[in-house]
Amino acid sequence: MLKRISMLVVAGLAAATLTGCGGGGGGSGSGGGDGSITMGFSQVGAESGWRTANTKSVQESAKAAGITLKFSDAQQKQENQIKAIRSYIQQKVDVIAFSPVVESGWDTVLKEAKNAKIPVILTDRAVDSKDTSLYKTFLGSDFVEEGRKAGKWLVEQYKDAKDPVNIVELQGTTGSAPANDRKAGFQEVVGADPKFRIVASQTGDFTRAKGKEVMEAFLKANPDIDVLYAHNDDMGLGAIEAIEGAGKVPGKDIKIITVDAVHDGMQALADGKINYIVECSPLLGPQLMDLAKKVVKNESVPARVVTEETTFTQEQAKTALPSRKY
Ligand code: AHR
Q1: How far is residue 180's CA from residue 160's CA, in Å, rounded to a whole number?
Q2: What CA–CA distance (Å, rounded) separates 129 from 108?
Q3: Residues 199/254, Cβ–Cβ less than 8 Å
Q4: Is 47 in the pocket of ligand 1 (CB under 6 A)?
Q5: Rounded to an integer, what distance in angstroms lies between the CA atom of residue 124 and that of residue 170?
Q6: What is the mean pLDDT of each run of 10 residues along the chain (326 residues)?
Q7: Would you call 136 helix, strand, or coil by DSSP?
Q8: Does residue 260's CB lie within 6 angstroms of at least one atom of ligand 1?
Q9: Quick one: DSSP state of residue 76?
Q10: Where's it mainly located (predicted)?
């Protein structure tokens, strides 16, 4: 029976592209008793510049904190994340951290971690589980607030406009916390004035390629687009290619708001192709390692740790770009 379980785990690992880093070995289950900590981390994928910067932050911070990191890339598939988490339970890691690709469907595997007495930290994205005892803390951005910030900038820009403002929206991965919350926060603000009309809204899965493809379709179906609201920089950058391909000028003919503030997005903002970016910081690694050390020692941690973030206009992007870390 044990052999069969091991084989299943091995099959799961192949799909999840598991790689160890930060010192090898691991799986000690020492609970920090001998001072060593092994963390199993299940990453969403490598869909965006934000995600690449987040992965780097987690890997570098684990190394700096002396935590052995077992890292897996789920290629944006929930089943791969579930397999990776099960393998970490099997390996008796000291703590599991993961960034859930979608919000729902985690209770079973989180209960398995709880039964195995392995603490879980949610990082970057939340789950919609009612049982909050299934994880110790959630470290990440307030995505609803990010959506509100995007909406407030738009309302201010068009405060004197009398004509309708036609908006198209590129949503993030369907069912993910940032897609749900950034949509809700934006809608809450612009929905208060009927002149703001969201004429089309579709997922671009947080990728540049999908952002371009969906924007091409938006442009064909909607001749009078005034504003694009993209849930991340990558989709916005793909959409810029589509807008230019249609003979329009991004940032002028169509105003563009995005979320993240990764280097390429900030460059497009400084170049005048994007009009406003709401920051979402991927540099969660140092705080994640601090929280991991505490939960392994069974010390109390806040149930929610919200990332500090700002916003950027075109002028602010020019100033910030030279010292931008990602
Ligand atoms: O969960 C954070 C989001 O995921 C980022 O805004 C996006 O770029 C990434 O893919």
Answers
A1: 30
A2: 10
A3: no
A4: yes
A5: 20
A6: 37 39 40 80 98 98 98 98 98 98 98 98 97 98 98 98 98 98 98 98 98 98 97 98 98 98 98 98 98 97 97 98 93
A7: coil
A8: yes
A9: T
A10: other
**Residue matched to tokens 């091991």:** 6
Q: Which atom of ligand 1 is nearest to the CA of 99?
A: 1
Residue listed under structure tokens 């469907």: 105
Cβ(51) – ligand 1 distance below 6 Å: yes
The two structure tokens encoding residue 66: 């002396």
Report which of 190, 141, 61 is spatially closest to residue 310, judged by C-alpha positions. 141
d(CA 212, CA 230): 11
For 30-62, the pLDDT digits (tens) are: 554 677 999 999 999 999 999 999 999 999 999
70-83: per-residue pLDDT in tens? 999 999 999 999 99
C-alpha 281 to ligand 1 mean position (Å): 9
Name the residue among 107, 109, 120, 114 with its Cα closest to residue 87. Answer: 109
For the entire predicted model, the pTM comes to 0.91
Indicate whether residue 206 lines ligand 1 (CB < 6 A). yes
For ligand 1, whether the C-beta of 50 sits within 6 Å is yes
**How far is it, in rounded angstroms, from Cα 145 to Cα 275?**
19
The minimum-distance atom of ligand 1 relative to the CA of 260 is 6
